Amino acid sequence: MNAHTHAHTESIDGLASPAATCSYLYALLGECFAYPDADLVENLRSGALLAQIQKLCDALDPALLQGLDAAVFNDPAASLDALKVEYTRLFDAGAQGTGCSLNGGLQRGPQMKVMEEAVRFYAHFGLTLTEEQKELPDHLTTQLNFLHFLAYGEHLLQTQGESTDAYRLARRDFIARHPGRWLPIMEDKLRTMEPMPLFLSFTELLRRLLALDLAQLQAQHGEASLKPSGDMPFGGL
């Protein structure tokens, strides 16, 4: 997604606001649901991933980690090959080959309509999927990147003393219509596949974050609209 928000999850700048903290956590979890790479393995082995998650969750709401198997975020024996094999088995075994697809339209379709609506959300904020973007508009990593963008945009507007309503209303409705709607379906399927605990903990933490964020947004702005996106209250798409 063509969006530059100056957020770097490896250097969390003092967690300047709840919106900034939320933004960093969405960005970090987006990286966790991407195809495993050497950076993930290094952060698992060194304990850096656990430290980042703990810092962000403690700042946002310590309940996010209560009862969660967070110890799996620090694994000195983490193996890139093993992570790649498990990720492929769970999430990536062909477009229709796994019940745990990370494409929301394959969890709660029809996929074309889901993707079209997601693109309208992105386009409303001037975002486009770049040619380098490997994932579709309904893929979890794309959607988390968008939530990261919206939360960081809220933070920037706050610092400038401007209204954040457009970003908050969009985030509320996007969570309710997209990842907040289908991630629990995916999680239920994931549990039946006896997954590596790391991926189950990533999923459970994300579900909790989406639920917390949506509840807070709805408490301030009312219930999310589940109408077609053209009727959404943050300006229309």
TrEMBL record:
InterPro entries (alphabetical): DMSO/NO3_reduct_chaperone, TorD-like_sf, TorD/DmsD_chaperones
Alphabetical list of Pfam families matching this protein: Nitrate_red_del
Keywords: Chaperone
This protein's name: Uncharacterized protein
Organism whose genome encodes this protein: Thauera terpenica 58Eu
